[in-house]
Design goal:
Blueprint lengths: L3 H52 L1 H11 L2 H26 L4 H9 L3 H10 L4 H6 L2 H11 L1 H13 L9 H29 L6 H22 L6 H37 L1 H50 L1
Length: 319
């Protein structure tokens, strides 16, 4: 017969050791096992979301922009425009009795203080015309021809078009015609700006700029691609380009004056040059955005029609 004191001491001593340890050993692995499916689900959802973005409209849009190297191309366009087309434009404006600085001020919608900063940076160009030689004029025209050449290369990449055939003389004539059209386009925008008034606070000038911009860039893409793409297919690109450039004009009218004033106070004339260069980079990016968006829009509109024609063709063959 076992004494009561021994049975009372042995039972409580075995229960804490045998009963408490198994739950503590099995709880951690079971918690980890239950968390693994949740982590896997989160990872799978993230991977699926990234895949949908890449294959969706936004991903395709960015992929096409990257395919044409839009940032580097925009920077090259801005630098070439600044160092070659501005002097060319200054000489032409001076020969016509106008001031290129005033043209830039009206186009950008600058206030009086910012206009003075730009005026101090850009001379009227009358002395340049007086001292310009035939060789210098030839170099100005040659460098100016680089602008339509860059644009032509962009649109060929966006619309998957081959390099244009024909002699160098034909290409030069086409690019000279485009430069003449660009000068007429800028002159028309300046005329609208002078008639309506400063860009800030006026909606009418933005509406006029949008309409003129759509028409000009609609014609530009068709002209630089030598008519290989139809007018209807290029209209979405023209509208998108018009929206982008008009938005840039609104931004310029509201914020560019402050940036020019601040840049001149901080860095002097180089600050004004930097702001103008940034504006030109934004202008070139807007051209890329409009062209790529227009191409994708045209493809989406044409895909149902092509699918319908394929079905009709298959039905005809089956009969």
């Amino acid at each position: 017969m076992v004494p009561d004191g021994q049975s009372g001491d042995s039972a409580p001593a075995e229960q804490p050791q045998g009963g408490a340890s198994p739950p503590s050993d099995t709880s951690a692995p079971s918690a980890q096992a239950s968390n693994r499916p949740k982590v896997r689900i989160v990872l799978d959802k993230g991977t699926a979301t990234v895949g949908r973005i890449k294959t969706g409209s936004a991903g395709t849009f960015y992929s096409r922009l990257s395919a044409v190297d839009f940032m580097n191309s925009a920077f090259v366009f801005a630098v070439l425009f600044m160092i070659s087309f501005f002097p060319f434009l200054a000489v032409l404006e001076a020969a016509a009795g106008r001031n290129v600085g005033q043209t830039i001020i009206i186009r950008l919608g600058l206030n009086d203080q910012a206009a003075k900063a730009v005026g101090r940076l850009i001379s009227s160009g009358h002395q340049t015309v007086a001292g310009l030689t035939v060789l210098g004029a030839a170099f100005l025209v040659l460098f100016a021809l680089g602008i339509p050449a860059i644009l032509q290369t962009w649109y060929q990449r966006v619309y998957d078009q081959p390099a244009p055939h024909g002699g160098a003389v034909k290409q030069i004539v086409y690019r000279l015609l485009w430069i003449a059209a660009l000068l007429a386009y800028d002159s028309l925008l300046v005329l609208v700006g002078r008639q309506v008034g400063p860009a800030g606070g006026h909606v009418l000038i933005f509406a006029c700029e949008f309409a003129i911009t759509v028409l000009f860039w609609w014609w530009t893409v068709h002209f630089l691609l030598l008519g290989s793409i139809g007018w209807r297919a290029l209209f979405p690109a023209a509208v998108a380009t018009g929206f982008c450039l008009t938005g840039l004009g609104v931004f310029s009218a509201l914020l560019l004056s402050g940036s020019i004033i601040s840049g001149e106070k901080t860095y002097g004339p180089i600050g004004v040059v930097t702001v103008l260069l940034s504006y030109l980079i934004g202008y070139a990016v807007c051209l890329h955005l409009g062209a790529v968006f227009g191409r994708m829009w045209s493809e989406r509109r044409e895909s149902p029609d092509s699918a319908r024609s394929d079905r009709e063709t298959n039905a005809t063959v089956a009969k």
